[in-house]
From TrEMBL:
It comes from Nocardia panacis. It is a multi-pass membrane protein. GO terms for cellular component: plasma membrane. PANTHER family: AQUAPORIN TRANSPORTER, MIP17260P. InterPro entries: Aquaporin-like, Aquaporin_transptr, MIP. It is found in: Membrane. The chain crosses the membrane at residues 38-59, 80-102, 122-141, 148-165, 195-216. The keyword Acetylation does not apply. Belongs to the MIP/aquaporin (TC 1.A.8) family. The lineage of its organism: Bacteria, Bacillati, Actinomycetota, Actinomycetes, Mycobacteriales. GO terms for molecular function: water channel activity. This is Aquaporin family protein.
Amino acid sequence: MSLPRRLAAEGLGTGFLLAAIVGSGILGERLADGNMAIALLVNALATAAALFTLIEWFAPVSGAHFNPVITAALTVRGDLSARTALAYVPAQMGGAVGGVALAELMFGEPVWSWSTRPRHGATQLLGEVVSTFGLVGVVWVCTRTRPTAVAGIVAAYIGGGFWFTPTDFANPAVTIARAATDTFSGIRPADVPGFVLAEVAGVIVAILVFGWLLPASPSTERPPRR
């Protein structure tokens, strides 16, 4: 696929992912009548289902990264060139911000309103490191060992992460875009830098650990994509 087509796929996929995260958060909170457990369950199930679909949908075009940390990890592994990676990240960011606006328009919420929902503290930052580490590890290992099952495994991990970590953003594009929605899924802009740094820490540790656990070899390493 040409680079413009791949960038369009990354932008569209990330946009639909954010529309699913934010939209299901809005509807879940409205229907839960104050029960946050129900709202979170709706948000988790809808996000996991949408993510599975989006990976199956766009993987043949762009690889369906939808996440700068996944792009970074696969670039380090040699799956795509630095030039392509640098082009992927703005496409993911633009798609994420557009997806937030789309969700807010569909549910009649103010578009791009800064979030007032606080998400901070050592426990939440640790949760971001853990969720990002696990996501990168899943992709690193399963794209080699179980490539046909990646969509389901990633979706299951993210859906579960809503419950076994306190945050489960695990994606700088998602984190930054969610600062622009003052709804259930939002994050206060002041808390964004800490989350992004935690995600960066998670991907670095994951690359080190899983690069050792499953090192490159002629039989497993794919040639870089251009």
